[in-house]
Write a structure and sequence with these properties.
The protein is α/β, with parallel strands linked by helices. The protein is built from eight helices and twelve strands. Helix 3 links the parallel strand 3 and strand 4.
Amino acid sequence: MAKRILVLEDDEAIASMIAMNLKVAGMEPAVFNDGLKLQQSLAGDHGYDLAVLDVMVPGRDGFKVFEDLRPYKIPVIFLTAKDDLESKLHGLTGGAEDYMVKPFQVLELLVRVEKVLARTAGRDVLRVLDLEIDLDGHKVRKNGVETALKPMEFDLLVVLAKNRNIAVSREDLIGMVWGSGYLGETRTVDVHIGQLRKKLGLQKAIKTVPKLGYRLEDDSL
């Protein structure tokens, strides 16, 4: 199946060039010239593999559209005339995969698109809410910024993320995280849940299920 690429670009000539080359490369571009119209379209269609966003566009700028895309876990490459350091840092530290400055070579853009698609498809990563959980590297990023977790906190988060929107008992969490041989109290689960809520701002997302355990809610699914 062809990769679907979302393109936000208000310069018609540049948008047409990008779309044409994406098609030649076997991809399926969807082009928007207005950030607000793109935002409004997401409710009905957000099945994109990657987005190429200009920053300075009508309706809603590329940085704001980036926030609109975040719940759908769509990787982003910024393509913009804004070459100041502040803009680059805004994009990259916010979680964008890449940042290209105009003028640019379309072949370079295609190479970067291919690399991002390969990188985001190939790595073992869980994405839930505004979190990116790197299972191989044992790292967690919230809105693109890494947050340090202790090993048991990380393992507990992984279990909750893999079972998102499902209530998991304290006993099952003990077994999956600490192991069947654990002899301590189930209260240790409550303590670690408290730390996850605090460190990752998940006070509302991790729900306590009375007389049972916990559930990580993700309404974007």
